[in-house]
Amino acid sequence: MHPLVFMVFMLLALYSPSSISTREAGEGLRGFSIDLIHRDSPLSPFYDPSLTPSERITNAAFRSSSRLNRVSHFLDENNLPESLLIPENGEYLMTLYIGTPPVERLAIADTGSDLIWVQCSPCQNCFPQDTPLFEPLKSSTFKAATCDSQPCTSVPPSQRQCGKVGQCIYSYSYGDKSFTVGVVGTETLSFGSTGDAQTVSFPSSIFGCGVYNNFTFHTSDKVTGLVGLGGGPLSLVSQLGPQIGYKFSYCLLPFSSNSTSKLKFGSEAIVTTNGVVSTPLIIKPLFPSFYFLNLEAVTIGQKVVPTGRTDGNIIIDSGTVLTYLEQTFYNNFVASLQEVLSVESAQDLPFPFKFCFPYRDMTIPVIAFQFTGASVALQPKNLLIKLQDRNMLCLAVVPSSLSGISIFGNVAQFDFQVVYDLEGKKVSFAPTDCTKV
Predict the structure, then answer these.
(1) Please, which of 87, 104, 330, 336 could form a disulfide with 319 given CB 3.0 to 4.6 Å?
(2) pLDDT at 13
(3) Residue 222, Cβ neighbours under 10 Å: how many?
(4) What is the pLDDT of residue 86?
């Protein structure tokens, strides 16, 4: 048992499974949309107006490197019993409403993790937030999960314990020594604006009520939890399952945009426009949170750089900024790109970029990621980042420290409608002006 669990057993005894009621299941299939706020947007609590565009990009690249370290820790099988993934402050934020009456919460949206959780009262140790802690005992729809219930058994065995009065306790510690401990419960989650006719609600959703939380990374006091969008059973996508046809999509905007990106579920996630391509979605049992694809090659104009892999060699992730390619494949890709562009890499490169060159007008050939069954042609904005203060272009693709695993990051996904069909086991890409979605 995690030692922190002992410290909160008495506190969690307040959440008696027999003392709180719940509401009946919700209605059938729905389509709905949520705004995603990029952490560097003026709409974000993380926004720092004193930073230059180049500084924002460089900071994002630093966060990407930190994210890679956490993914690496997670994919190390020796660490699986005690490590899950949490993003470095999160690249995208979303609003949800929890409980009855509904309480608004701003949370990190993360396609690389599963558990939905918020900080709850009474709290023995919580990180600062500028809104009152969620009080489950004041919600008419909260129910603490019993140890033998389906919500409890959905939590990995190494991350759950049974409390003194039969309540289910979760205990997640992360690769950077951060942790969250609390009670597993069910609650009504709502999306939209309170009083808005478009608001949708989902009763009896499984979530974590965190009462002993600590994070070593710096966070905003407006962010109060996390919404997991990964492939595991506790994620929002998996829980809504049949109600949304196991489909969701997002359309991400570049850093420079002042608009919100969109996260869509159910019928609203379906794309029927011309140019849609699809590739098989691969869920690996050891790593259910992550969405794997198979990258066969990258083409630069007529030049083909093959990976030689067929076993699901790349994770698609909205929380990783840069694209990471397995080291040998990266070396081959960059060598071919240098040859085609006739450029040499600049010296004294800003971390973590590995290939930059002086900015000048040039024709960039079509560069496409060749996933199994799907050729995804990227625009220069998906691959090259301009650092204005250095007057150079840097490749938004860097070598991966993961053995045999690459990551398709969010810069590469800008202005694509990316559709995840968990039931059909495929991911689709549609070139889109995401300001008009």
Answers:
(1) 87
(2) 64
(3) 15
(4) 44
Q: Per the omega criterion (within 30 degrees of 0), is the bond before 101 cis?
A: yes
Check whether the bond before 203 is cis (ω within 30° of 0): no
> Where is 189: in which H helix or E strand?
strand 179-191
Residue closest to 105 by CA, chosen among 89, 119, 87, 90: 119
- Evaluate the CA torsion angle 309, 311, 316, 319 in order and state its sign: negative
pLDDT for res 367: 97
CA distance 295 to 329: 11
Q: How far apart are CA 360 and CA 286, in angstroms?
A: 46
Q: Is 148 left (phi over 0), alpha (psi -120 to 50) or beta?
A: alpha
Stretches where the chain sits below pLDDT 50 are 1-3, 18-27, 78-88
Helix, strand, coil share (%) of the chain residues, nearest 5 = 20, 35, 45
Residues 202 and 149 placed together within one structural domain of the fold:
yes
Q: Is 82 inside any structural domain?
A: no
308 — alpha (psi -120 to 50), left (phi > 0) or beta? left
- Residue 345: CATH number of its domain: 2.40.70.10
| pLDDT computed for residue 84 by the predictor | 44
Give all strands (DSSP E) within 294-365, no chain letters.
295-300, 303-306, 314-316, 323-326, 356-358
Read off the pLDDT of residues 359-374 as tens digits, 9 standing for 90 and up.
Answer: 888 889 999 999 999 9
Contact partners, residue 3, CB within 8 Å, separation at least 6: none
pLDDT at position 112, please? 82
Q: What does the pLDDT read at residue 99?
A: 97
Task: Report pLDDT for 258.
Answer: 82
pLDDT for 12:
62
29 and 164 together in one domain: yes
Return the structure tokens found at 421.
């069909």
pLDDT in tens, 164-198: 899 999 988 755 566 789 999 999 999 975 555 56
Token code pair at residue 334 = 């960059």
- 412 phi/psi in degrees, rounded to 5: -65, -20
Burial class (CB in 10 A: 0-12, 13-18, 19+), 5: middle
146 and 175 co-located in one domain: yes
SS3 of residue 305 by DSSP: strand
Give the strands of the sheet with 367-371, arranged side by side: 303-306, 295-300, 367-371, 374-378
90: tokens are 């999160």
- What are the structure tokens assigned to 37, written together? 């706020």
Output the pTM of the full model. 0.89
Q: Are 86 and 113 spatial neighbours (Cβ–Cβ below 8 Å)?
A: yes
Residue-range definition of the domain harbouring residue 206: 3-46+89-264
